[in-house]
Every structure is written in C-alpha cells, then in structure tokens.
Amino acid sequence: MSVSGKAAGIKDVALAAGVSVATVSRVLGNGPVSEALRKRVEEAVRATGYRPNLSARRLRSQHSQTIGLVVSDIRNPFFTAVSRAVEDAAYRAGMRVILCNSDENPEREELYLRLMQEERITGLIFAPTRATLDRPDGLDLDFPVVLIDRNAPTGRHDAVVLDNPRAAAMLVEHLHAQGYRRIAGLFGNTSTTGQERHEGYRAAMAAHGLPPAARFLAPYADAAEEAVVDWMAEQDRPEAFIVSNSLFLMGVVKAARRLKLPIPDGLAVAGFDNEPWTELVGPGLTVIEQPVQDIGRSAMALLFERLEAPDRPSRRLVLGGTCIVRGSTAARMAAAG
Amino acid sequence: MSVSGKAAGIKDVALAAGVSVATVSRVLGNGPVSEALRKRVEEAVRATGYRPNLSARRLRSQHSQTIGLVVSDIRNPFFTAVSRAVEDAAYRAGMRVILCNSDENPEREELYLRLMQEERITGLIFAPTRATLDRPDGLDLDFPVVLIDRNAPTGRHDAVVLDNPRAAAMLVEHLHAQGYRRIAGLFGNTSTTGQERHEGYRAAMAAHGLPPAARFLAPYADAAEEAVVDWMAEQDRPEAFIVSNSLFLMGVVKAARRLKLPIPDGLAVAGFDNEPWTELVGPGLTVIEQPVQDIGRSAMALLFERLEAPDRPSRRLVLGGTCIVRGSTAARMAAAG
DNA sequence: AGCCGAACTGTAATCGTTTTCACTGAATGC
DNA sequence: GCATTCAGTGAAAACGATTACAGTTCGGCT
Q: Would the CB atoms of A75 and B75 count as touching at under 8 Å?
C-alpha cells in the first residue's frame, strides 16, 4: 500500500519501474515484454499498491467483461442458486456479474435493462416478467440475451428452461398412482412457467380422464392459503393440490393447518423446488427438483456460444426435473370421498 | 432506437441537435441551459436512442456512484433480505450496488475486495469472514466500510449489528420460564456473531445458576444434526437446544426426527432468523427475528453519513431482536429427567 | 559487412464523457 | 452611453487506461 495521498495509477508504476506506461500495460495484459522488465514492473506494481481502474480499462478497450443477470425474485432460492452457478461460471471465464432483482415489477425491470445498456454489458441472462415478454420489442436489446426459467413465445432467443409440462405431468402421474383422483392445481399468474405447468397438468389429467381444476394466483403464499381455504369449503373438495412454486406450497401447508387437515390424509400436496425446508414440514413435501446448477451453467454456456457466433439460430435447452417423493403424497387411504 | 450500426454517443446527439457536446452533457446533468436548447437536445436524445456510457462517465467524473455489498452467504435469507433493503436505499439515492457473495471463503472475499477497489466504489457494506476480521489490516481499505452482522473487535469501523448477547439471553430466559433447565447451545464457529450469541447464552445460564453446555460448529445443517444425535446419546442429555442460525435449526429438527423425539416434549429448540418456513415445521419454531429491513437501511444511512464526514469517530448501531414464540418451546411437561 | 526480420519498447492517439475556461450578447447600473 | 455583470454556449483539456505505429536493438543470413 502506497503512502502517498492518491491511489497509484499506471503512470506512477511506470515511473517507479523506469519504463513507459505502454510497457506496464503490457505486463498487466500479458503482452510481449522481456523477462527483466516484467520483473521490474511487477515489483513496481507491488511497491505502489497499484490497482487498475476498471472504468478506464473498459472505456478504452471497449468491452466490459461483464454479464448481466436480471432475476425476478432474489428471495426465491431457485434464483439464488442459479445466480451462484452463473457467478461461478462467469468468474472462471474472467467476467464480472451484475445481479439485479426486478421483484416481478416491470418498471424496475425496465430500469435495470436500461442500466445494463449503460454498463455496456457483454450479454444478459434474464428471467423476464410477463409484461416484458408480452411486449413485442421487450427483448430487443443491444446485447445477446439468454432467457432462463421463463420462455419467450416467439422462440427468437436462446433459453434454458425446465421441461415444465413434463414436470407437472410427473406430479399428476405420481398422485394418480398413489390413488388420488380429485387433484387441483394452483399456478402463478405472472410467468409463462405457471402457464406451462398448468398445461402439463391439464394434459396429464385429461390422459387419465380426470377433470382438471386449476386456478391462477398472484405469487404470494397468502393468495394460495386463501384459495385453498375457500376451495376446501366447496362441495367436491380436492383430495390433493399441485402447486407451481414454493410460495404456494407454504400457502397450502398453512391452509391445511388452519383447516386442521392432516397431510396427506386430509389433503395431499406436491409442488416445485426442492428447498431444504420441504423435507422438514409435516411428513415431508413431495416436490420436483430443478437442476439449478445445470441451469446456471448452461445459461452461461449458451451465452458464450452466442457471443462467438452471433448469427447462429437460437436454441432452447430443456432440462428435466426430478421428482422427490415424500410423505405429503403417501398412498391415499381407502376412505369415504 | 437508432437504426445506425453503432450505439449513439454524446457526439451524435450534439450533431443531431445542432449544439456542442458540452451542452448535451449539461442538459443530461442539469447544468444551466436555455429552455429552447434543452428541448432540442432532449428531442435529439430520444431520436438517437442515446444511452450514456457509464464507464466514460465514471472515469471522467471520478466518482463511481456505486456501493459494494459483500455478504458471506447469499443463500441465507437474512442476507438476501438485507441486500434488498440496501439496494432499495441505494437506488433511491441514485447509486448502484455491486453484490458479491464470499461464501465464507476468505480467498473469494479477498478477490471481491480487490474488485471493489478496482471499481473504485464509493463505500462498502460488508459482512466479513472471521479470517479477514482477525487479520490486523484486513479492513484497511481505500473506501469507507460499514460492517453488518459481524463486528470488528477493534471497533474502528462503523457497524450495525444485532444485540446478539441480549438476543441469546432472551432465548435462555424464555426456555427457563417455560420450565427447561438443561439447555444446550450450538454456535457457528466462523463468525463473531456465533461468539457473541454464545456469550449471551453463557451469561444468562450463569444468571440462573445453570451450567452452560455449548459447542461450536461449522456452518452446515449436517454438523448440527450429527452434534445433536451424538449429544443426545450421552448421559445428562439436554432438554432444549439454542442454536445460532437457521442452518443449525434445520439440523436440530432433522436430528429430532431421526431420534424420533417429538418437539418440544422430547426436545425443545429455539434459534435465530424468522424465516417463513420456521412457522411450518412441527409445532412452529421459536426464533429471534432480526430487523433485517432496518439493518440494511441503517447500514446505508451510516455509510452516507460517513461519506459526508469522513473523520467523524466511528459508530456502532446495535439493534434489538424480537422473540417470536412458537410451539417448539412450549412449557415443559412434568416428566422424569 | 550489410541487410532483414524478430522481438521489444516508447510516443501518442484514442475511448466517451465531464468540466474548465474563454467568449458572446444582452441586460444592468451609473 | 459606457463599463460591468451575467447567463448561456462552445472549444479543448482532462480522466486512466489500451493499442497502433514507429523506432531501436540484436542476431542470423548471405
């Protein structure tokens, strides 16, 4: 650490090493420099406590070495897990990550997209809100975009998503095999993910000749709780719920508790995202586990490929989920409907 | 959005508006410009789709308008909640946030601190690992630092922390009042937080003439699970556990389940962080709720005050926690020890 | 010996902004 | 009516790095 007042610049290093700034820059950037000078410069760097100024570097070299990551809910462990994977991959590639959280708020999201442009990011990994997805120019950006979790209907962008219909169908299959018939569904109304899961649910129910019964909710646990409480008061009350995210899972568990319905005998439930606590509540909750690690890594991989070949046609990577069976969907007891 | 190939710069805007670049810069930065020109420039900005280049702006103006946030575990909902609060406050002040996750890994942490310097951040909000805290020059950085969650023993830095000893003591008091006597403690060994909570635990136990029984663990749920399983096999097995974080809470619940001990009759438990799921497992888990929102906001406030008065003596803000009582610490049944 | 190319090195231009400084009119004060 | 301010404007100098270009040195080849 230098004792002088201001932070050392490349000029100070050059002076200390008795070379030109160009030479210093070259040893920093692995340019061709003789071993002797390289030694001297490295020594000077250490002595001055020099730290490159990334703003200057980025301005001059015209690439930011930065990738953006805009997620829709940072509290959702799915996204924190993905962002860790993305960050690891980025770091290994010598890139920085700017992580932003839109909170499902289109205005916030737009603000962050603008920020990304102003940062001149190299590429974006993006879980867009529905509003942005629906706007025809919502994804026309100055940099390559890889969508995660949510899918653009146009298919013009690279994307890596879960096989949502299949995953929802797996849950239906499982519940059906366990003896459940009146299976209801709760799906998020803010993302394509909810729609796709609903689609898989609907198809699987139809395949078994069962009537689907689905509702679409805002992404809050309370919404699910209320919906379940209401629903269970109706005639023909469901035996089981399939829900499309972990907030709803909480809501259903709360509702069951409020209604004093034991899980699974009073009410079975299955959902998405294998969060640590799903193992701990009640008899354990049956969930679809998403390959979060893979999703993050693959998104980065797609992004890098896109950067190398900007004109290659877009690709969608569809990953399978794993059904983690727990007590919340134990075989249905023979009982009166 | 311009149709031209390259992104528009301030020069293009100036050209389009028929003014000098200086004028454009001034309307962008609220400098003194006549109403007429301001109109023309704003129109030109819209027409060209101009977006400022933040690297250039930062380089020239010599302040980054960026604050750093280095947390030790992004999966910990405590930190995600804090970071949301920080980001909100920063955004309202027109600043950007760089969020980094050290994962309790000192090397990663150092790397990120270096990055912060290279980004020339305005200030840092920091939950340091113990290694960094113990190194005498670990917190000698080029910018103001506000510590959160963890506390430097030297007290040379601004900090906002929970009243950890008091919070742990609250749990002891509560358990004692509920009739528990053999109260064991599990504390994290990576942070000062664990130490402080242990200290409060120890003192409160002593105040009641109870013998303390504490162990320090690595921050994994499994570590806690094993510790509990082992411990419960010993003679003089604890009636209740106090744990210093939510990972340990999971571990204790898992252990209870493995040992077929009902909560709280077989084993009572209380911990920290009021995460949504703590309400749902077993009879509900008694926890200390931290004022996460407040912590984030206050950290930003301290940072801003420090920026305005760099030489003011350092200050520590100690916030109180709230004890959320749930079934996991229900009154002890009269039973054989 | 003389020439050529390879391997380094330094000078200076450049990246896209902000900001200093000088300058222009027009308005004000006497 | 003339000096004096003043608000608005533009030309050009930074900011701190990278990099194109032009030397310089040196070794090998003929």
A: no
